[in-house]
Amino acid sequence: EGKKTEFVKLSMRSNDTEDIGSPTIDDSSSNYEYFCGTSFSSFLKNCLNKMGNTASSKKEEEKIYLKNLGEAYPFGDDGIRLLVWIHDKVQSSSSPLVDIAALCATHPPPGSSGILKSDLPSWADRWNYRKKLAQMVHLLESKRILDEDFGVMLMQCVGITSTTSKSKEEKEGSFWWMKNLEGEDDDTSDYYDIKIPSSSSSSTSYDSFGDPIGTFLEGLASCTGRRGMRSSLKFLFKLCSSSSKNKSVNARTLIELGYRLSLAAAFLTVVVNDKDKDKAPTPMIDAFLPEETEDSKIMMESLVNSLLECAKKQREQYGAGAGGGFGGSYDFAPSTTSSPSDVREDGTMMVTEQEFLEWAETTAPMLGSALPTFLHRIFFPYNKQFPPGLTPLLLPNLAEPPKPYKKGKKKDKNCTNDDDDDDVDEKEARISQFFDTPIRQSYSSLGIFALSITSPKIASGGSWFRLYSSEADGLSTNRLINSVMGYSGPTLLVVQDKSSQGLFGAFTSHPWEKESGEFYGNSDCFLYRLCGDSMGVYRPKGTGTTNYMYCNPESRSKGYDELAHGLGFGGTSDRPRLYIDEVLDECVALEEDLTFENGPLLSGSPSGQDRHQQKGRFDVEAMEIWAVGGDEVIENALNARYEKRLEDIKRIKKAMKGAKGQYLEDLQSGLTGNKMFAHRDQMRGQAEGKCAEDDDDSDEEEN
Predict the structure, then answer these.
(1) ∠ CA 328-332-335, rounded to 5°
(2) By the 8 A CB rule, do 215 and 158 touch?
(3) Strand, helix or coil at 491?
(4) Chain CA centroid to CA 463, Å
(5) Residues 321-342: pLDDT tens digits?
(6) How does strand 549-552 pair with strand 566-569?
(7) I want to staple 106 with a disulfide (CB 3.0 to 4.6 A). Which of 64, 130, 457, 626 is the partner?
């Protein structure tokens, strides 16, 4: 009854109601019916209409605003709505990446507006995932995989300058995302509560000038790969620049940031895709810590020197100071320090944006995907599909090698060693001579990172599978060829030179389908030098010569074809550019041919090489060949190799059976017997003929 009275009072105060006088308010039914009659009904209609018009007007303004933003920035309507909302939420955050991860994981994902609520993750699931994702990002910062202030720098680069760095204690005190679910409601209404600037409320087009949201969205479009890889590389360069006035950046700083971002993206990807959803991310972080070994230092120097050499060539070609470079002469000196803060005063460790772009686009095209892959996992955690035009950089690890089989036991179809029946302790055996890390199945190998940024087919995540290792299978070209023959997926050959200990090799995505004296393959094939002096990648020239890959064992022609017998890439059939001789006596790695770009494969300057090495010859210290391309691709390719081996065995058995059957048939018909004992008859005939001649001679003498 009290609420009824309030309704009456409300109606009498309203200017929209009819004049109903000032009756005495009581609880009588007749009086109540009077106030709920025509006048009050009219009042309610007016209120609802006004509310409906206001909501409709606001919704229409919001729709126009989001539409205009969607036309200007490549995120889609729901993505734009989320990012505009995020923009207001992180204005004063001291840990913006952690807060963004928590907010994006809690609220409805982009694209959910047209999906039934029952199809979305439950509120409890979203809440639990929020805590897990925020904890993962916090681990990346606390373990120094990413700098603790990286998120603040990132936000400043996209136009949010109010974020501030705080002490560790202050950050841990603001971990609101760690509180329990108890007492919280599934209230995400403020997700749709977007503040529309007054200047944009009635505009039919969007003008980003002076709008902080426009600056924010444009920055995110660049750093998430939606403006192309070149924009992502420029943003990476911007992150490494201490101020907008700096036209050059330390080469080591650029490569280290790309390496650490790829580790961070791999960590988020692996933990998110882990089948054990309740597994804590903290124990898994150790497999993603940056590698700090002597081999990793050599590998980092090789990458840095590669960038510096590319910068040197550009300055020699276009003149000192070209592309925003230095005004003075450029005297390149290889990097020999291991500290990223050690910058030489003469600028020999510094590169300009244009020099960095030129190197990345030719040598390391996947480096630009490191930052977009990482940010996609944070801003769009429920969207497993990457946006069109973005090829993610997914670092692989090394799969455990298959256990060797023994006689009397079922053979593993993936086992590469057909002769080794000895017991092998797999726990003590190394997975790789070149890419092993202190933690088995780690993602932190700098060598794997360096190879992954050269091709999207290498940076496909999953686990590389070892097809052949000279350490485990013996140093043999025949065994290497047998390990790849019939394998239908991408493969990576790694060779170590005995003289310089440098690593080089070749990549091909074409199946090793046949033994032939002719070349085959496709333009995805390339040669590389991984470490020694500086990293180099030599892709096809595109001049029409297609001598990509070559596999010609001597057993195919019995040596009568007078061609090179072994495994080769580039060059010609009698002298490939990279050639692994079948008996390992005449291995060659040349600097040029007509198929691939020119450049050295062997390490060491010509003056430091002996006459044997100056001719391109080298002795093999070790070799490995890896199946790459992702778990599904590798599994299908291994099955194809297994099926081919079964077909080969059947064909051999059939041939043996055919020869044996023909022999039995000849034996039963008497043909084989006649053939087998024909020589005895001939010998008997010769002996009888000889005796007859002797008798005739003796008779003549007697006569």
Answers:
(1) 130
(2) yes
(3) strand
(4) 11
(5) 544 444 334 444 455 443 333 4
(6) antiparallel
(7) 130
